[in-house]
């Protein structure tokens, strides 16, 4: 299937429910703005509980037929959806950059990354196997089969407006679930465009439904799904505080939950590391999307013997980063998502400096570029007393902490309630084995700063959540196991 859209044709402003574009029941709308300029792009539907319920009604009607479709039929639809995403990668990338702010190259890269999950789960759709359990009693046959959990509610963040929702929707549709979804209020346009392409690919009416809601109305809208016993699963990427709220409020109907929550990732540079490689890895891990990812290193621990040399290497590279709007083809760092983000970054840097940190580069707002820009920053002499040691900055700030021993580094790295990603650089094979085993994280980068892959399980431990996205394990959270015992066979 091949069909290309102009950017203007991809921008939709209404909810998508039961195969139709419809306004919010209340008629209310809210503005989506360009973070580079603060200017309004378009006003979209401001949904409430009535819209969430209408989406659930449609998903419930569509579920039996979609569940009973052959896996290869569902796979064919997903393959067509993937092809449309690739065909429209340039314009989708422009849309991501427009509403989220990341540079154009990163926007297009996100499209390809999100599409890889759709292709992966299209293939996995035909590989959902059960088991024949060895006989335990004569005259009985015991089997275990896997079935779709039912209606899935997908709630996604603003920092990857295409990839996060694609890697939730794709496995759900692959196994026969139907979906109701709500993207972040800052970046709903990319998700709406993605649903447009899914419908064009042949996803039947009611199988995939999407509503948009403002910050004020999001909680009442989502609360309807939390209370509705027809919704059997919640999949969410976002803050730990919201994840805990979803877990509490959905407990009344005992929904299945996948929660990919906050992080506070450590990045450890041992004195035997390849420092050039470590600096390259840190640049890739820390400054992707301007530091606005859940796996960005938030605390950089450098062993004393190489601390100053590594700080110099990193500072030179960070100072050379080009900060500009996505419309500048040379941009490497775009605007932050909104004023709240900029305020938090500034607060963290100011607090660190007041407690003794040295600014090696950056450390200021770039108001000459627009309202939401912050200079890529390296801070030396960071300590655990600073806010940025225990709170996720979510911006282009790399604080350098000094350590002396391996035990000290691991203790500091694990001294957090979060456990999503960790990174370390070392050329000592024995140390690599020890540290990899001792780090408390769901994802560990060993001499590598770029971790994401559709073939790898993505998720955390501790207060970074539970469940895994991507890989062969990514279907499990959308399936339930049914045990069948047939007697009277002798």
UniProtKB/TrEMBL annotation:
One of its GO terms (biological process) is gamma-aminobutyric acid catabolic process. Residues 21-483 form the Aldehyde dehydrogenase domain. CDD domains: ALDH_F5_SSADH_GabD. Keywords: Oxidoreductase. Gene3D superfamilies: Aldehyde Dehydrogenase, Chain A, domain 1, Aldehyde Dehydrogenase, Chain A, domain 2. InterPro entries: Ald_DH/histidinol_DH, Ald_DH_C, Ald_DH_CS_CYS, Ald_DH_CS_GLU, Ald_DH_N, Aldehyde_DH_dom, Aldehyde_DH_Superfamily. PROSITE patterns: ALDEHYDE_DEHYDR_CYS, ALDEHYDE_DEHYDR_GLU. The keyword Oxidoreductase applies. Pfam families: Aldedh. The keyword Oxidoreductase applies. One of its GO terms (molecular function) is succinate-semialdehyde dehydrogenase (NAD+) activity. The active site is at 260. PANTHER family: SUCCINATE-SEMIALDEHYDE DEHYDROGENASE, MITOCHONDRIAL. Belongs to the aldehyde dehydrogenase family. This is Succinate semialdehyde dehydrogenase. It comes from Paraburkholderia tuberum. The lineage of its organism: Bacteria, Pseudomonadati, Pseudomonadota, Betaproteobacteria, Burkholderiales.
